[in-house]
Amino acid sequence: MIDNIIFAAIAMTTPVLLAAIGGLVNRVGGIVNIGLDSMMLAGALAGLIVTSTTGSNILAILAAAMIGAALGLLMSLAVTRLDANEIIVGLGFNVAVAGLVRFFLKTVYDSSGTLSLPGVARLPVIDIPVIADIPVLGALVSGHDALTWIAWLLVPATAWFLARTRLGLRLRAAGAAPQAARSLGLRPLLLRDASTAFAGMMAGIAGAYLSIGVVGIFNEGITAGRGFIALAAFYFGRNRPWATAFGALLFGFFDAFQIRMQGRGVPAELVQTLPYIMVIVVLTAMALATRRRRSRRT
Predict the structure, then answer these.
(1) pTM for this structure?
(2) β-pairing verdict for 125-126 and 114-115
């Protein structure tokens, strides 16, 4: 049982971690991306359609990345160039993309909510000989697809990028002090646009993982609010990639656990709320701990 939960937890962590890494970079650049869920939804649909048409999951992932990046750039332009409120714009994107997806499914595929297409190329898994048979360790590292490995490799890569590279330092400067960054000859708005496009790209890939890596179909509710969970993950991590990854893993574990509980006869309507309740509990505990530390200083 424990191996099954561990394996499912790693799988459920992947889309949240991908989107959270993008959102973290975006937040470091100065924009809190509330629209991650819309970019995941668009990426999930694009990935399924492209892989069904071409038979290539690589092209599907590229298409999902492109549409996510395009949505991210549009959102950023509304915020950075039109001075729109980033929270309102993000929520507007979530509502608008959900409506457009519903309209697209109805008019093009005459489908109401769910789309199943022939010839979908699912993401291949990587089995590691010998290790696959070792309890716990096999569930941790074997039998997962390339996107899962990429998601976890991005954690140290992001930490290195933000702390050690010139572009990463410029992005941090643009997010923390845009006026000072401009006085040094940097272009903070351009850096913010790039970071939001990157966040959209990562969210689009996360959506493609859901449609062609997990279920093989598309549904209007396929993201199940994971874009907002990714938001909670990088808030939990406070712009630290490893802490953000832990937050995503925490959600993945409870998501896998609730699926297991459904198989044991526990009402689905009850256990499906477990991951989201735990996110609220963890964020509340963090807020209380922060308030306690501040009160001690004063």
Answers:
(1) 0.92
(2) unpaired
**Structure tokens given for 216:** 């093989």
Mean pLDDT on 1-14? 85
C-alpha pair distances (Å), 168 with each of 114, 178, 230: 40, 14, 21
Kindly report the number of other CB atoms within 10 A of residue 288's CB atom.
10
Burial of 232 by CB count in 10 Å (0-12 exposed, 13-18 middle, 19+ buried)? buried
Q: 80 near 190, Cβ under 8 Å?
A: no
pLDDT, one tens digit per residue, over 8-61 is 889 999 999 999 999 999 999 999 999 999 999 999 999 999 999 999 999 999
Task: Tell me if 26 sits within 8 A of 239, measured CB to CB.
Answer: no
Rounded Cα–Cα distance for residues 88 and 80 (Å): 13
Tokens, residue 170: 């410029």
> From CA 145, how far away is CA 71, in angstroms rounded?
26
Classify residue 144 as exposed, middle or buried by CB count within 10 Å of its CB (0-12, 13-18, 19+). Answer: buried
